[in-house]
Amino acid sequence: MPKFVIMPPQTEHQRSWAARIADTLPDFDVVLPANAEDAKREIVDAEAAFGNLPADALAGATKLRWLQSPQAAPPPGYYHDELIAHPVTVTNFRGIYNDHISAHIMMMVLALSRGLPGYMRAKARHDYEKDANDAPFIFLPDSTAVIVGVGGIGGDTALHCKGFGMHVIAVDPRVGEPPAGVDELFPVGQLSSVIGRADFVLVTMPHTPENKGLFNAEMFAHMKSTAYFVNIGRGPTTVLDDLAAAIENGVIAGAGLDVYETEPLPAEHKLWDLDNVVLTPHVAAKEDEGGANLNQRRSDLLLDNARRFAAGEELLNVVDKSLWF
After folding, report:
1. CA–CA separation, 41 vs 128, rounded Å?
2. Predicted local confidence at residue 123, as pLDDT
3. CB atoms inside a 10 Å sphere around CB 190
4. β-sheet bridge partners, residue 262
5. How many angstroms separate the CA atoms of 188 and 174, rounded?
6. CA–CA separation, 155 vs 149, rounded Å?
7. Which of 112, 143, 214, 316 could join 199 via S-S bond, C-beta 3.0 to 4.6 A?
8. Closest by CA position to 32, among listed 2, 7, 13, 51
9. 25: left (phi over 0), alpha (psi -120 to 50) or beta
10. Mean pLDDT value across the chain
């Protein structure tokens, strides 16, 4: 009977997922420790676990073979050196957010391409001003998107961009062939040479050991002065002070951000007051009542992987621990 430990603290949703696994797969011994000390005792003879597994708990996990990450891209520190070196297979929740986040990206592309920030400021002034846009409109069928990270979210975004007639360039460290909707594909090493072709740079990549601060003053200098930068991947990939300076000094035209180096974005940061900037508070994958239930998707994926694990089948969404995704 495989033992599956749900690491504390557990959310209400996670407790419901545990109950579903126990009901559907009665051969699983699902354990929910109340605190970190209980978890250390329970993990010793567990074959599987869900959640954050710190080094001191992992050290006693003598039988652990599968760990489910609680997020598609967990925060820095989750993939610590001991976890990377451990033989345990880690899986994550990538793929369940594709439609939500790609729609949020396109909201920003459309808003920036049609000058919406300027019109929203005019609205606040009760000003019926036809030229309130901060920059000329961008006609999307004549534009180019460079999508950095063309996995599930980036792949869906490519299809949306293609639907608006855009030329789509993808930059990715692992994808070998251009996926549907992508016209050209380049490795990350060529980013600085292709980013200057973009009217929109759309970042969907996770934070990895290699890309912290990748988008900095030097990278923004390679962009067109009429181009927009959109980041809905992970905040640490982008140096926000450099981005603000690039917009303020006319190096690039503006930005759309849902993720930030520091969250929440400090109230005194320049980005709040810059024109042609769309800011949302890390809500691209926010739950909604009327649409797809992301917690149901998480539950379905976790249950499927638990069934696969019990049957000795290949797990879904296996992570390259050294790359964190």
Report:
1. 66
2. 97
3. 11
4. none
5. 9
6. 8
7. 143
8. 7
9. beta
10. 96
Q: Which residues contact 296 (CB under 8 A, 6 or more apart)?
A: none
Residues written for the chain:
325
User: Angle at which helices 294-311 and 12-24 pack, to 10 degrees?
Assistant: 40
Distance CA 201, CA 43 (A): 43
Contacts of residue 53, Cβ cutoff 8 Å, sequence gap at least 6: 7, 43, 61, 67, 83
73-77 own/partner pairs: CB under 8 Å, 24+ apart = 73/206, 73/207, 73/233, 73/234, 73/324, 73/325, 76/207, 76/236
The helix (run of H) or strand (run of E) holding residue 278 is strand 277-279
Question: Which domains occur in the chain, in start order?
Answer: 3-95+294-311 (3.40.50.720), 98-279 (3.40.50.720)
DSSP for 235-267 reads GGGB-HHHHHHHHHTTSSSEEEES--SSSSPPT
Annotated catalytic residues are 234, 263, 282
64, HSE (Cβ side, Cα atoms, 13 Å):
24
Record the tokens describing residue 114, joined without a space: 């049609």
As given in the structure block, the two tokens for residue 244 are: 């603000």
SS3 103: helix
User: 60: exposed, middle or buried (C-beta count within 10 Å: 0-12, 13-18, 19+)?
Assistant: middle
Give the whole-angstrom CA distance, residue 110 versus residue 196: 20
Distance CA 11, CA 94 (A): 20
Task: Tell the residue number behind the tokens 């990377």, with chain if given.
Answer: 84
Query: Tens digits of per-residue pLDDT, 265-321?
Result: 999 999 999 999 999 999 999 876 555 589 999 999 999 999 999 999 999 999 999
Position 290 scores a pLDDT of: 52
Provide the 8-state DSSP code for 224.
-
Collapse the DSSP code of 91 into the 3-class scheme (helix H, G, I; strand E, B; otherwise coil) and give the result: strand
Q: 36-47: per-residue pLDDT in tens?
A: 999 999 999 999
Q: What sign does the CA torsion over 216, 217, 222, 228 have?
A: positive
Confidence (pTM): 0.93
